[in-house]
Design brief:
14% strand; binds NADP nicotinamide-adenine-dinucleotide phosphate; single chain; 10 helices; seven-stranded parallel β-sheet; globular; Rossmann fold; alpha/beta
Length: 269
Amino acid sequence: MGRLSGECRVKSRFGPAALVTGASDGIGRAFAEALAAQGFDLVLVARRETVLQALARDLADRHGVTVDVIAGDLSAPGTVADILERTARTPVGLLVASAGFGSIGPFLSQDAASEASMVDVNCRSVVELTHGLVTRMARTGEGGVVLLSSISAFSGAPYSSTYTATKGFVQCFAEGIAIELRPLGISVLAVAPGPVSSGFAARAGMLAGRAETPETVARVALAALQRGGTVRPGILAKLLGWMLVVLPRWGRVRIMAQIKKGEIAKAKA
Ligand SMILES: NC(=O)c1ccc[n+]([C@@H]2O[C@H](COP(=O)([O-])OP(=O)(O)OC[C@H]3O[C@@H](n4cnc5c(N)ncnc54)[C@H](OP(=O)(O)O)[C@@H]3O)[C@@H](O)[C@H]2O)c1
């Protein structure tokens, strides 16, 4: 009963529609599932159109919601402008910006174009999309923004330097706009998970170890959306957060270097 009434409040405050990036997989897909189950109409964004279309049909059939698909590459200039144009008449009260990717290994062994593209997807598109959709939400005096930070957003991490910097950017961005937008009726939540069992690790060339499920991340985040701030879903994220917070910044970077070196060694073994 308590959970159901909480879900009704989420829909009535942040509905009727939510836009989810990265909806074709992992955490974004879990958000799409959870929001459809709560009766949200959806706009799903990612590159793989056939995957999105199949998900859209499935969610519409099972939950009786309206689901639109916008296939696009968020690293490309103009994609966010296209999304904003195509959703101009859709009452989007909630943005979940989950699209993102990472890399691991020495910085100089990474492809420079791919690292720059990571900044475009993980940071630039998040700023553009948030600005565009929040401008509309501010007119109605209600709305929500969920941004995917990471447990690794709180210090530099050698051997994953660009990725952790993008997540540090998202975390700082979320903390800043949360204060600015609260008086406008808009709640901003930074979600900082530890490892999550999605395709993310494999795509980044990392080894997947013990991890939370994408469904846990989505459930915990949606429960925290009303209050906003930062949420660390799952015990692993909380433990890692507490362990690192007691260290000075230079100490955290050195611990992260050891963790990342260990991940690289395990992936090679
Ligand atoms: N998994 C973890 O361990 C973990 C931990 C902390 C934080 N996070 C953060 O959580 C978010 C989601 O991660 P995840 O675990 O769900 O990863 P995932 O399973 O790899 O899914 C990533 C999603 O982003 C989309 N995407 C990637 N590049 C894109 C691009 N250029 N344009 C449009 N969409 C793009 C992918 O769809 P297409 O391939 O169809 O485009 C996919 O839907 C990321 O921001 C990540 O940094 C993940």
